[in-house]
Specification:
148 residues; mainly alpha; 4 helices
């Protein structure tokens, strides 16, 4: 059996640098990695005490919440951009319809924001609610009349 001389190491051993995998260039030291992780934790909303003294799973919870918040914000921005496009589409449609119509167009730009328009279901529910409230008021009045 061949034994390496002092100062040498066997091929494939833990001290053999040809086998060891190097850390990525961005994290050459443990302190650089720690600083990066702590920066992420603070960006997620953790305090330094929570990061240093808290349970390790807490970091993952904060990370998930941050990702969910970012995704919700992205969806909100996407919907907002779509709504702006819808308003522009309606505005251009009204302008073009009125410009190129031979007999005068009845096209109008919406009088209220789209989000304030009630659907048929909402109108029905509101009518039912108002009917119920008037019935309750009548019952209260008749109850008060009998009590007097």
């Amino acid at each position: 059996m061949h034994r390496p001389q002092q100062g040498q190491c066997e091929k494939g051993s833990l001290t053999d640098t040809s086998v060891r995998q190097e850390k990525p260039a961005e994290f050459q030291t443990a302190s650089q990695y720690f600083i990066e992780m702590m920066s992420m934790a603070i960006a997620y909303g953790m305090t330094a005490e929570q990061f240093l003294d808290g349970e390790p799973w807490l970091f993952n919870v904060y990370a998930k919440v941050a990702r969910d918040r970012e995704e919700a914000e992205s969806k909100k921005m996407d919907y907002s951009a779509w709504l702006v496009g819808l308003y522009c589409y309606q505005a251009f449609g009204v302008v073009l319809s009125n410009s190129f119509s031979k007999h005068g167009s009845k096209a109008k730009y919406p009088e209220q924001p789209i989000s304030q328009k009630k659907t048929g279901v909402e109108n029905d529910l509101m009518a039912q609610y108002q009917g119920f409230m008037s019935l309750v008021q009548q019952m209260n009045r008749s109850k008060n009349d009998k009590a007097v």
